[in-house]
């Protein structure tokens, strides 16, 4: 069974620029200093998911003798 992809939580934030308001549901992921524990935890989970998926692809490629870079 395939591992379902991660879905980041939505935290609406209104941003005002040039007199227009827009909502960015993923603004919480903005972390220039790489210090927000919630962002770091999400990125660790996302990296783990990617590694898991890629390892399955690598195994398939090795089984058919096509190397995956």
UniProtKB/TrEMBL annotation:
<feature type="domain" description="Peptidase S9A N-terminal">
    <location>
        <begin position="9"/>
        <end position="58"/>
    </location>
</feature>
<dbReference type="InterPro" id="IPR023302">
    <property type="entry name" value="Pept_S9A_N"/>
</dbReference>
<dbReference type="GO" id="GO:0004252">
    <property type="term" value="F:serine-type endopeptidase activity"/>
</dbReference>
<dbReference type="Pfam" id="PF02897">
    <property type="entry name" value="Peptidase_S9_N"/>
</dbReference>
<dbReference type="InterPro" id="IPR029058">
    <property type="entry name" value="AB_hydrolase_fold"/>
</dbReference>
<protein>
    <recommendedName>
        <fullName>Peptidase S9A N-terminal domain-containing protein</fullName>
    </recommendedName>
</protein>
